[in-house]
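From the shared-data thread, chain only:
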Amino acid sequence: MDLPINSSNPLGALHRPTPNIWVLELKNGVDNRLTGVVCTKVITPALDIVEKEWRIARNKALKADDKAGAGGALIIVGKLDQNKFFSNGFDYPEVIKTPGLGFIYNNFTMPIMTRLLSFPIPTIAALNGHTFAAGFCLAMCCDYRVMTSGKAWACMNEVHFGAPFPQSFSAIFQEKARDPVLIRSICLEGKKFTPQELLKHGLVDQVVDGGSNGVLEAATQLGQKVGVNAVSGVWGLIKKGVYFKTLQMMAEDTRQVMPFEEDAVALAKL
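Structure, as tokens:
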């Protein structure tokens, strides 16, 4: 299924290669930027479709005493006909021209990241290339991450081009990275991490060969393995408890203060 629905220029595609595996492929240009349209017309409806189809399939399977048919997993991957980008993050020119930076909070940070952190079936980010900024956050909101062994970095590079973090981004890395030195490297130094470094720090679960096809195959195998944990219906409910503080921080996210505003306030007090 191409997304947006009925669009002549699909920016994503939702596949269901097996009854228990869904694959959301991001297809916005060369580097899969997360624009307002991608967030609201591709990712959000895809999550709605997957959740609805899984819940219907699960209920039917359980009524038929078919536990194997009641599981499921969602894979998010960059465009499959390339081996260069998972996602290069927000379309920054679009972000900075949006009044109050409402694009970040209303269309990405709150609904999508919150949704992934509490999604009712396992979610796997199949990182088939560079994973930057908001794309990195998207990946970290998934339950598992599989990354290509090829030339690919993950980086929160906002510090290098003067873009402050929304509180929700900070909350994600405090939750998933934990180590203060690692968090400093990610958020304050904008370090570029290789796949092997990400694996060492536990930020990805597997590093695999074979480019996009290899990453998707490994993610599919992982999804089939962990998807059974969704059978009982408590996967998402447990996650809401595990990530309670993070979800609470995200719910309290407020309008981001920009550097020039911080300067004005600070100078007024000095």
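The mean pLDDT is 91.
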